[in-house]
Specification:
Blueprint: E1 2-4, E2 19-25, E3 30-35, H1 42-52, E4 60-63, H2 72-79, E5 84-87, H3 93-102, E6 108-111, H4 123-127, E7 132-135, E8 143-144, H5 147-150, E9 157-164, H6 167-178, E10 187-193, H7 200-203, E11 210-220, E12 229-238, E13 244-251, E14 255-262
Parallel strand pairs: 4-5, 5-6, 6-7, 7-9, 8-9, 9-10
Antiparallel strand pairs: 1-2, 2-3, 10-14, 11-12, 12-13, 13-14
């Protein structure tokens, strides 16, 4: 959904829109409509559309180019009930901080390293207990994160795109998880730029494990998600408390991916 703001480009306040462009996404094609009612507020349009489609929720809100022109308090007042926030290239680090402060309690957060000064993701963001923390799934740049910062992640499901981390550090991370680190983690997906040490043997060195045949499949489900994941084969390991996890390692031409599924009771389908 895109909110048309008229020819004069209203700034700061979410003023009455001149028109609203509605896109309904279909299986074979999308339908685009332009509705005009110049005396209707943003709040009216939102509630009107929710009534039409019988869908009272706001699944997500995306902050993109020029978002920083608008008053964050207005945005929060009108659209403050969503469960997922996506921050892209707003062009303003200060505004990004305001987004994070005003939408602190969302369940799912989608960010990029470039949203932060010096591309350093705030530790308090890593430590927050999101259902899903998505760091650059669109692979717009590289993510720099130390092992200590990786150990701070407290989300149930995490995706980290183009992470600059060695296979040896991933090996240390897994060993520390076995000792009790990252207790909330259910699913971790790392896309790593391939390097000389991008090797499965280095990742698993010194870790007792069982190799699962590729023809064996299991169903996995994260908290807060309706869809299930099919886990094929992999490498099973155990934490000191007996919790099982499956690690999948794949090497491509340019990237080296590591996924880790933690089989908590509510994740087993």
């Amino acid at each position: 959904m895109y909110w048309g703001i008229g020819a004069h480009g209203r700034k700061k306040k979410l003023t009455t829109p001149q028109s609203v462009i509605i896109t309904v996404f279909g299986v074979s094609r999308n339908t685009i409509s332009i509705w005009k009612k110049k005396d209707s507020t943003m709040q009216y349009w939102l509630e009107h559309l929710q009534d039409i489609f019988n869908y009272p929720k706001i699944d997500s809100i995306k902050f993109n180019n020029n978002s920083s022109q608008f008053d964050i308090d207005d945005i929060k007042e009108v659209f403050g009930k969503e469960t997922k926030v996506k921050i892209r290239n707003t062009g303003c680090h200060a505004f990004n901080q305001m987004i994070l402060q005003n939408f602190l309690l969302v369940k799912k957060l989608n960010i990029m390293p470039s949203n932060f000064p010096n591309s350093k993701i705030l530790k308090r963001i890593l430590m927050q207990n999101f259902d899903h923390l998505d760091i650059d799934s669109e692979l717009q740049g590289t993510t720099t994160m130390t092992l200590d910062e990786l150990l701070l992640i407290n989300s149930r499901k995490s995706y980290i795109g183009f992470l600059r981390i060695s296979a040896k550090q991933i090996n240390k991370f897994i060993k520390l998880w076995q000792k009790g680190s990252n207790p909330c983690m259910e699913h971790l997906y790392i896309v790593n730029l391939r390097s000389e040490d991008s090797d499965k043997d280095i990742v698993m060195k010194g870790i007792k494990h069982d190799v699962i045949p590729d023809n064996q499949t299991r169903m996995f489900k994260n908290v807060g998600f309706t869809d299930t994941s099919l886990v094929t084969g992999g490498i099973d390991i155990h934490r000191m408390d007996g919790t099982k996890a499956t690690i999948q390692i794949k090497k491509g031409l340019m990237v080296f991916t590591v996924q880790m599924y933690v089989w908590l009771d509510h994740c087993v389908v």
